């Protein structure tokens, strides 16, 4: 069963790659990512809402720390890509 799920996720991921590439070509990158992450947050929020309610204070605190670290990592990556793109480097171009 897990192998079938893995194959299905891989197939969906591969199919959406071309669609995302085309969407980024006509839609601003950061706006596209904001919409994409908002949809993912909503979907995961629906699935995990009951579990979040059962977390204690320490669980919520740990989740907040992990979220902050993840946000800093994403912000750092975007900052790097933007700075490199403005300076004519190749990292910003490689992300497109």
State the main characteristics:
2 domains, extended, 4 helices, mainly alpha, 96 residues
Can you describe this structure in just a few lines?
The protein is mostly helical.
How would you describe the overall organization of this protein?
The structure is a single chain. This protein is mainly α and 96 residues long. 89% of the residues lie in helices and 0% in strands. The chain folds into two domains: 1-54; 56-96, no CATH class. It has helices spanning 2-26, 29-54, 57-86, 91-94. The radius of gyration is 17 Å and the shape is extended. It starts with a helix and ends with a helix.
Any chance you could write out the topology, listing elements then pairs?
Layout: H1 2-26, H2 29-54, H3 57-86, H4 91-94
Tally the helices.
Answer: 4
Overall shape: it is extended
Tell me the series of helices and strands, N- to C-terminal.
HHHH
How much beta, percentage-wise?
A: under 5%
Whole-number mean pLDDT = 81
| Rg, Å, rounded | 17 Å
Total domain count: 2
Name the helicity range. over 70%
How many DSSP-defined strands?
Answer: 0
Query: Main β-sheet: number of strands, strand sense, barrel status?
Result: none
Termini separation: 35 Å
Structural class: mainly alpha
Low-confidence regions: none
């Amino acid at each position: 069963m897990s192998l079938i799920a893995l194959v299905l996720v891989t197939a969906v991921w591969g199919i959406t790659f071309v669609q995302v590439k085309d969407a980024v070509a006509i839609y601003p990158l950061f706006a596209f990512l904001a919409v994409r992450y908002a949809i993912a947050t909503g979907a995961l929020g629906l699935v995990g809402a009951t579990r979040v309610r059962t977390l204690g204070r320490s669980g919520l605190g740990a989740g907040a720390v992990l979220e902050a670290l993840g946000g800093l990592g994403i912000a750092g990556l975007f900052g790097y890509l933007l700075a490199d793109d403005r300076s004519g480097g190749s990292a910003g171009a490689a992300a497109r």
